[in-house]
Structure formats: structure tokens, C-alpha cells
Amino acid sequence: METQRFEIVPAQSQIDWIGRKVTGAHNGTIKVKQGSIVLTEGSLTDGEVTIDMSTINILDVTDSALNAQFAGHLASDDFFSIDKFPTASFEIISAQEVGNNHYHIEGNLTIKEITHAAGFDATVNYYGDSLTLAGKLIVDRTKYAIRFRSGNFFKNLGDNLIYNDFEIGINVTANLKN
């Protein structure tokens, strides 16, 4: 049984995020710090990715002062507590091929040192010495002690409500480790 380990290339990988509220949405990126993906007999079997939360970036707020204020708020204890928890991670527990290069991945998502099972569909393209993995994960932020303006914990928020679910788009490139 041939096993190949691919190391994630942080400069060619990133996490895209979208958070929604009653009056709209915000989006941005977060850099990947490190990780690996394992193929056994050409099929995805294992892997993990570490996300550098200190690199959270907001793309849709163009005013620099407002963008810096928003980034500071996301870094605060209202959201990700980045000073205390500088990384988040996803560890693949199982991957089932559901079609040509398409997988359903189950694993453990850790944010703020709180871990919950999570699953998502992904496409894995394998090019000999490199591969790409892309998928989208929906996360309930309240499971990770991120409750700011959540309708589950605060009443009468009106237009200030922030929806509990946010999207994480995973886009990684990895090269074969020799």
C-alpha cells in the first residue's frame, strides 16, 4: 500500500471566510500556517491544517480606520481571542470518495481550543508531486464560545443580530514530501 505525504505550501494556500448579519455580510481571508495531506493508493486518507488566526483579513471594508477597528474586534474576546488562541486547526478523521476527485471529509475543527466534529465536501486534484484541496465548511460559531450578538444568547437584537453560522472556504496546495 503506497502512502504519500504532502506538505501544505502556506504561500499558495488560504482560508476564505464569510460572516453574515441581518443587514449584510463581511468577508475576508486567513493565512494557513502549516499542514499536511496524506494519500494512500491515490486516495485521500488523512491530513491536518493549522490556521494562523493573527492573519485574519477583512476584504469588504475599504476604509482603513474602520477595517483596523473591525479586525481588532474580530481579534478580541468577543470573537476569536487571538492573543490567547493564535491558531485554529482542522484534523481529518475520515475521507470517503463520493465521486471522481470528490470527497466527503469528517474531522475535528478546533477554534479557541474548543474541538467539535465537522464535515464538508471537497475536491482533491492530484498532479504527481502536488495536489490541491478545496471545499467549504459551515461553522456554528456559538459552539466555539463566540456568542457576540447571537440570537441564541441575546434578545431584541433587531438589525444588530449576527447569524451563528459562518462559511470557511478551504483552499490549499501541497507538495509531495520526499
TrEMBL record:
It comes from the Bacteria. Pfam families: YceI (PF04264). SUPFAM superfamilies: YceI-like (SSF101874). Residues 5-175 form the Lipid/polyisoprenoid-binding YceI-like domain. Gene3D superfamilies: Lipid/polyisoprenoid-binding, YceI-like. PANTHER family: PROTEIN YCEI. This is YceI family protein.
